[in-house]
Amino acid sequence: MNHETPLFPRSLHHLAAGTRRVLTTAQLRSHGVSAAEADDRCRPGGAWRQLLPGVVLLHPGPPTSEERLHAVLMYTARERSVRVPGQPGPADSTAPRYEEAMITGLAALTLHGFSSAPPLPSLDAFDVLVPRLRRLRSTGCVRIVRTSVLPVPAQVTGVPVAPVPRALADAVATVDDAAAVLRLLTEAVVGGHCDAATVVRELTGAKLLDRPHVVDAVDSLVAGGRAVAEDRLYRMVREYGLPDPVWNVDLRLPGGPHLGGLDAYWPDQAVALELDTRTSRQDLCQEDLWFEYARKRELLERLGVTVVHVTPHKLRDAAEQQAMVIRTALMAADDRDPAAYVVVLPR
């Protein structure tokens, strides 16, 4: 018997010495390790550990957060290896591509950089989003979350991660504290990941708005989201040198009906700006409110008032473009027929 024969093939030794020491039993078989040998190495006190069904940690110590992330994806995803150009050696020439699975919930928010989400080592389980018809069950550090339509994942350090709105909804589903929920929602909006309307639509789709602590957090979020959007609007007017409007006003016809409230109005040019931050959770959920916006806009434009409609999303991502739209409307005032006389009142 040759006592210098390695315990496992050279390629496997190379993998075990690498940075990601997690393999599936199928991958081990491809390296010449039988199921019986793998089971023997995973016995108590052995050199390996079975982290999840069909997933083996190639060292006896506790897994790192990165190893746990890849382990849960190996358990849940349809994995294929893709060749990475310019990477020599059998262990480094391929990288995993996980299909039909992505990290979601609190772990996903942590990977997206949320300071209000807990660090990965403190999480007992990672939520993994998979298609509804996949035959998988939660086990160990994997919590299965199902969906009828998988979103397009972001790639964070080689890990597929659910987009922030979906990850946020899945995280909120596991958090019972209203203050913690509000911190997550606020960071999503104030941090520029998504707007309040998107958050509420996702929470509505997840049927989370029947939970009182989530409702309280969302109502606080919407109020705070309007303040953030207004601040961005003031900053846009100042930074792009637009003339100062009158802020937060109501328009009426002389002796006549109320025409509606506006966030900004340039009376000399008859240009109005309306900021869509629908001011309650119920408003955000009601698409019918768009008809009210359309009715008001049509009425004002019949009177010769140009209405510019701006969303928090546009203010956040395209402030310069929105400033150009407003400037163009102001400059075009001289070429339009004079607007009807309206009464401007503070709101």
List keywords for this structure.
single chain, 347 residues, alpha+beta, 3 domains, 5-stranded mixed sheet, 3-stranded antiparallel sheet, 13 helices, elongated, DUF559 domain-containing protein
Question: Secondary structure elements and their pairing?
Answer:
Elements: H1 10-16, E1 22-24, H2 25-30, H3 35-41, E2 49-52, E3 55-57, H4 65-76, E4 78-83, E5 94-99, E6 102-104, H5 105-111, E7 126-131, E8 142-147, E9 154-156, E10 159-161, H6 164-172, H7 178-190, H8 196-205, H9 212-239, E11 246-252, E12 258-266, E13 271-275, H10 281-285, H11 289-302, E14 306-310, H12 312-317, H13 319-331, E15 343-346
Parallel strand pairs: 7-8, 13-14
Antiparallel strand pairs: 1-3, 2-3, 4-5, 6-7, 9-10, 11-12, 11-15, 12-13
Written description of the protein model:
The protein has 347 residues and is of the alpha+beta class. The chain folds into 3 domains: 89 residues, no CATH class; 128 residues, no CATH class; 107 residues, no CATH class. It is built from 13 helices and 15 strands. The strands form 5 sheets. The chain has a 5-stranded mixed beta sheet with strand order 14-13-12-11-15, sandwiched between helices. α5 crosses α6, α6 packs antiparallel against α7 and α7 runs parallel beside α9. The longest helix is centred in the middle third of the chain and has 28 residues. The protein is elongated and about 90 Å long. The N terminus is likely disordered.
Question: What's the gist of this structure?
Answer:
The chain has helices at 10-16, 25-30, 35-41, 65-76, 105-111, 164-172, 178-190, 196-205, 212-239, 281-285, 289-302, 312-317, 319-331; strands at residues 22-24, 49-52, 55-57, 78-83, 94-99, 102-104, 126-131, 142-147, 154-156, 159-161, 246-252, 258-266, 271-275, 306-310, 343-346. It is α+β, with helices and mostly antiparallel strands. 33% of the residues are buried.
